[in-house]
Amino acid sequence: MDSIQQFLSAETFAVAGASARTHKYGYKVFKALLDAGRETYPLNPITEEIEGHRAYPKIADLPIVPEALSIITPPEVTQQVITDAIEAGVKHIWMQPGAEHKQASQLAREVGVNVIDDGSCILVLLARQS
């Protein structure tokens, strides 16, 4: 099973950079995972609710540790999100195009996290599955 299949086979997901603004990619990724029937939690430090789901400031605030994390944040934010994800025990991390952070990716790989940071977009893959 390749890294994308491993990510998509997770049972629980979180989206860092989830947004309540429907034109933003953070909204589209969160909504696509929900629409695909995935248990998904939004991470956003300044939004309280997205699509009727409580938003959480950071991974440590979630009621569970998600198996998989999709990241749609600027690279300088991505670094901290990945550090938090590693500490929490997240197994799969997918940095959406533009969110990549080379050093954080390397650190995650070194501790055994499945990392996708090759420019692949989860929206494209979820659209193919529906």
TrEMBL record:
It comes from the Bacteria. Residues 7-99 form the CoA-binding domain. SMART domains: CoA_binding. Pfam families: CoA_binding_2. This is CoA-binding domain-containing protein. It comes from Rhodopirellula europaea 6C.
